[in-house]
Amino acid sequence: MLQNRKINAVIVGGSGAIGSEFINILLKDYDINKIYAFSRQKQEFNSDKIIEAKIDLENEESIENASKIIEEKIDLIIIATGILHNENIMPEKSLREIDSVKFLKILQINTIGPALIAKYFIPKLNKNEESIFAAISARVGSISDNKLGGWYSYRASKSALNMVLKNLAIELKRTNKLAKVIGLHPGTVNSNLSKPFQASVAKEKLFSPFYSAHKLLDVINQSKAEDSGKIFDFNNIEIKP
């Protein structure tokens, strides 16, 4: 979809493990006009094709201001952000561990932030050629796939994100018929997000950020109009709601 033409891309979460690899791969393997790289931490990139700026997914004004930096029509938007844990938050193992403040923090970053990015960034999508809005989701956001329970806030935030993506896909059929919206499951990636949980992951199922980003870009390029609103894993297999 994106290859064989010059493209403008937006990567939200460009300082993260997967986000930075998206940028590296796009610069190397695609005909890039410009990449807008947004992240909470300021980054330095060694390319005049990259416009770098800060963004705060917990602040709507920051998201709106970030969108105003974009001058070109965009062909690809990838949201590569997310939170599973930090120094104060760990996934809940049981009901008694639910904490409203921590739950809201997870929802703000994993669900509300991406919805607000869509609000301000989707109007920037190209309307004359195919374009795509993609967000990193997770298999644990699938209600039908949930066999273990636990991780209340993270699972709920990703399920809600998947619904946001479905809504966007329906709306874009009316407002930008050449645009697609998809969710992406990257697998278990060797990153800070997965580090506390890697001991239980088989070696062959722990992916490098490069491998995961490369596979997800393949999914994006293979996507069809009828895929809009769906969630796919790194092997391009649909994850059912």
Summarize, please.
The chain has 241 residues and is of the alpha/beta class. It is built from 5 helices and 9 strands, in the order βαββαβαβαβββαβ.
What would you note in describing this structure?
- The chain has 241 residues and is of the alpha/beta class.
- It has a single domain (7-233), classed as NAD(P)-binding Rossmann-like Domain (Rossmann fold), CATH 3.40.50.720.
- The protein has five helices and nine strands; from the N terminus they run E-H-E-E-H-E-H-E-H-E-E-E-H-E.
- The chain has helices spanning 17-29, 60-67, 100-121, 152-175, 209-222; strands at 7-12, 32-39, 50-54, 76-79, 131-136, 179-185, 188-189, 206-207, 230-233.
- The strands form two sheets. The protein has a seven-stranded parallel β-sheet, with helices on both faces. A two-stranded parallel sheet has the order 7-8.
- The chain is globular.
